Amino acid sequence: MADDMVLLSDPVIAAISTHDNREPAVDASAGTGLRLDRREARYNALLHYVRLGLRDRLVLAQRALPPHTHLLLVEGYRPPGVQHQQYTAYADLLAARNPGWDPDLVRREASRFISPPEVAPHCTGGAIDLTLCADDGTELDMGTEVNASPVATGNRCYTSSPDISAEAAANRATLSTALTEAGLVNYPTEWWHWSYGDRYWAYTNSTTALYAPLATDQVVTG
């Protein structure tokens, strides 16, 4: 299941050209009815921002969900500095645990959980980490927590993992159907990570990326 995946560390992703369409970054929850979770706010104060095109597609996906089921947005835009810090910390951890790995293998294995900064979808404003919740805010069973690593879960965080309950598999299918039909693509090692307009989306759709990385001041000014 893992060996034939195209990961964000693969050269084919970095080789994809980007022509930013200058869409603004907007507050995903403002006036949309989309629910926002703040669990990552201590690391990233700008997590509620996404590109306009992604925001509009999330609204479409929400409308396609069954009654009493809601998208719960966990993290959209991530500043480049935060991305670099998180990637480096995880890559260093893997290297320390696996002293026989060369740098290329460390990079590839790290990218199963967090993208190398230079191709990071979240830095473009075109990616979103999210899950499903009920009317009262209770999160649905998705098989793992959001942001659970492959190492910690025995790869149960992989979207197509067979090692989860029937209920969790059904909930993942519900999420996947709504987001796919709205035009998003999934990163297959993380059931919660979906994107539109970034390099990984462009690779999946055989086209050019619509969104380049944004500096923090570009997000705040929109």
In terms of DSSP E residues, the strand content is 5-15%
Question: How far apart lie the N and C ends?
Answer: 40 Å
Counted by DSSP, the helix tally is 8
Oligomerization category of the chains in this entry: single chain
Give, in spatial order, the strands making up the sheet with the most strands.
Answer: 2-4-5-7-6
Largest sheet: 5 strands, mixed
What is the number of strand segments? 7
Low-pLDDT segments, ≥5 res = none
Return Rg in Å.
17 Å
Please give a structural write-up.
The protein has 222 residues and is an alpha+beta fold. Helices cover 34% and strands 13% of the residues. The chain is built from eight helices and seven strands. A five-stranded mixed β-sheet has the order 2-4-5-7-6, with helices on both faces. It has a two-stranded antiparallel ribbon with strand order 1-3. A hairpin with a 6-residue loop joins strand 6 (185-186) and strand 7. Helix 2 (52-64) crosses helix 6 (166-181). The longest helix is centred in the middle third of the chain and has 18 residues, at 80-97. The protein is globular and about 50 Å long. The chain starts with 10 loop residues before the first helix and ends with a helix. The relative contact order is 0.20. The model has no long low-confidence stretch (mean pLDDT 96).
